[in-house]
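This section describes the prediction task in plain terms. A model, or a person checking by hand, is given the sequence of a single protein chain and must write out its three-dimensional structure as a string of tokens. No templates, partner chains or ligands are provided. The sample shown here is typical of the held-out split.
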Amino acid sequence: MPFMNHSGRRGFLHRLAAFAGLSAGAPIAAQAQGRLTQGPGNDFPGLPSYARTQDYKSLKQSSHDPTGGNADRWPIRPGATQELFNQSGAGLITHIWFTIAAQSPLHLKEVILRAYWDGNAKPSVEVPVGDFFGLNLGDYAIYESAYLACSPGRSLNCYFAMPYRRGARMTVTNDGSRDVGAFYSNIDFIAVDSLPNDALYFHAQYRQETPTQGLKLPDSKNPDGKENYVYCETRGRGQLMGVTLGWVQNSEAWMGEGDDMIFIDDESKPLIIGTGSEDYFCGSWNFGGRDGARPFSHHQYGAPLITSPERTGGRYCCYRFHGDNPVTFTRYLKHTMEHGHANDRTDMYYSCAYWYQDSPYTDFPGMPPVQSRIPVVKA
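The expected answer:
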């Protein structure tokens, strides 16, 4: 199956635009100016948006060789930062593609991606590049989802829409001790006159707990989720789009059974409570068990990497998106999950959470040192 055809990509953008406050049937600039009120589903059924006149300007910023040669890449020395994108005015990043050639086999955990909206000095996206693309344990795995993918040849793709009103900037920093010999980048975006007032800003936050602290709670019950693993915490108004998670087992047996608990506009108790971590990632029964687990990937959920399941050193990469029903909040959001039933497991967690909100939020926890981001077993 091809990664995503033109109509599929456009369809995704319009679905995402619908919940971000952009009309699914109207060109973005025209909708922002109130000129169009009906889309193709209303005034001419069957005519897709890509066959209609659009008012935006399609653009790209890339690592191309400005001399016209074939050195279409950036080398990044240890400790150095490379700017990938810098654009003034209103617009919308629609697609990001990277591929990386680096001396270090751990570069997916060592290189940090950051994005800044509307001139903010602090980033609203701050994630190791591998975790951002769902490769939370630093290993490449081929998969396709609605928003993220890794294709053969180690190409990384993102289709989360990223709106900005006054400008946007994106960088990568090499926290490793060895050269990134070639960082290739293509960032597709559109320029518009303005965005609707209710268009939201994209956020991505990295967290880890290495290891989680195993607990023995009374009666093995955890009704309030106070000691859960935290994917993200933010204040404002918006909606949660989902998470990616890398697990490394520190002991034998199944490490799931951790209920997802999402606190919405109330810090004292979760509003949404699920039935287990494997269920949250839309799998079941230990993803197939010690001898039957195998990787899977679908548009809204998957586990594209599973090795040595239910064994010490077992590794899982999982993702769950809420594109069907983004989880809304008006003041406060904290997305959490138990680590094992009632937090009884001690394993290694590395995650990225994705959400949209009404202002660029930058109050992130500090990025852990590079060595602590490298997945290991702590038996």
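For orientation: The helical segments are 6-20, 28-32, 40-43, 107-110, 129-132, 277-280.
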